[in-house]
Design a protein that fits this description.
The structure is a homodimer.
Chain A lengths: L5 H12 L6 H9 L2 E5 L4 E3 L7 E7 L1 E7 L5 E8 L3 E2 L2 H6 L6 E4 L3 E7 H10 L2 H26 L2 H11 L1 H6 L2 H8 L3 H12 L3
Antiparallel strand pairs in A: 1-8, 2-7, 3-6, 3-8, 4-5, 4-7
Helix pairs in contact in A: 8-9
Chain B binds a DNA duplex through helix 9.
DNA sequence: CCATAACCTTAAAGTAGTTTAAGAGCGTTT
DNA sequence: AAACGCTCTTAAACTACTTTAAGGTTATGG
């Protein structure tokens, strides 16, 4: 747990600037409330049963959020890489135990703000209400698209759309993780890939 | 297009009060920017190809939001009934043509605020940034649950969860609409229901 | 109050996705 | 160098879900 170094700060500030410019006062208020952490591959920043106490900004690396079913199987709800936010909002705002894990797929550097510090920020600098409104709206729109795909298209098309939407992630992730995200078995994804090679 | 009548106003204000209290000034600013409309069954408040120009609060009645695929089939992305908000956020904020329809399943009374009036409201009364942040966060959490179900459980379990989560809606909606929401055919839902009757 | 469109169900045949099992390739750990 | 775990693939048998078609029932709009 360190104060953010200059490089990490820049990545965070840049991401905010894409939504609205910040005054130097706002920037200072923002940075001073975040702390930096380095996470190993397979390290957790949230485990099922714990309360999600931080909102996390990813400076580098990649995470998955997943739930485990009664049969012990993992189901990937989302991936998040550098420049993105990740948190279990349901647990974060309700302060109740989370139903999901958030785990590093690659070694990562993150910036975290605690629940109470974020609420402080909202109260002291109302501009941040807007920033986080826009962040959540963006994520909501993404999710809505995903729901539509899940109920309307085949696994093959979902896979193609995934490649199209996240070409970079598709290279970094093992296919087992992608299958879990798509809601199919790794075996079936393998079958799909085979068909696609012979009919591109 | 009328000014909101007293009853509709009360429903709207009550919904805001659940998040944070409003000053009488804020209440006035809010109400004065909404207009009331009465929508017939099967009436549209948004059609694919049009820009979504309003954020809609439902005073009474029920809507579905759906997309139509290449084969001409409808896929229900969400239902919304009295006390809830509905809008195609992607189109609303980007001001680009929408990919979805929003249609009344029952005759409805709604309150609508225009895009620019909402932005005005955000600027003049920053409290509303927070209100709408919370509204979207709530919807996001709901969607995230739905994604998890879509990738992890069978259609039967999804149906049972739907009955559990929206018992009231389940009574009001025809099964064809529910099937479309669950991502299955009406025929298969019928099969599931038959099995459930013989094994409750 | 009649016509028609929307809704629900059944069943048979077909397709999409899972399960189980087995083996091969690769990178890490001991 | 051996042993291990993780990933990817193949294939056969199985289950979940769709398609097509048909018939009966209920709403509702004209």
């Amino acid at each position: 747990m360190l104060s953010p170094d200059q490089l990490s700060q820049d990545v965070l500030i840049d991401s905010f600037k894409k939504i609205f410019p910040l005054s130097s006062q706002e920037r200072e208020a923002l940075i001073s409330r975040f702390s930096e952490r380095h996470i190993k591959r397979r390290g957790f920043i949230l485990q099922q049963g714990d309360v999600c106490k931080h909102f996390t900004f990813i400076v580098s690396g990649c995470f998955k959020m997943y739930a485990i079913d009664q049969a012990g199987k993992e189901h990937n709800m989302q991936f998040a890489a550098e420049g993105e936010w990740i948190s279990d909002l349901a647990s974060f705002y309700s302060e109740k135990p989370s139903g999901v894990h958030i785990e590093a797929i690659e070694p990562a550097v993150i910036l975290q703000i605690k629940h109470d510090d974020l609420l402080d920020l909202y109260i002291g600098y109302h501009r941040f209400d807007r920033h986080f409104r826009v962040i959540v709206e963006t994520k909501y729109i993404e999710l809505q698209n995903r729901v539509l795909q899940n109920i309307s298209v085949t696994a093959e098309q979902r896979y193609l759309n995934f490649l199209d939407q996240f070409p970079e992630l598709a290279n970094r992730l093992p296919n087992t993780q992608i299958a879990s995200y798509l809601g199919i078995t790794p075996e079936f994804l393998s079958k799909i890939r085979k068909v696609l090679v012979h009919r591109p």
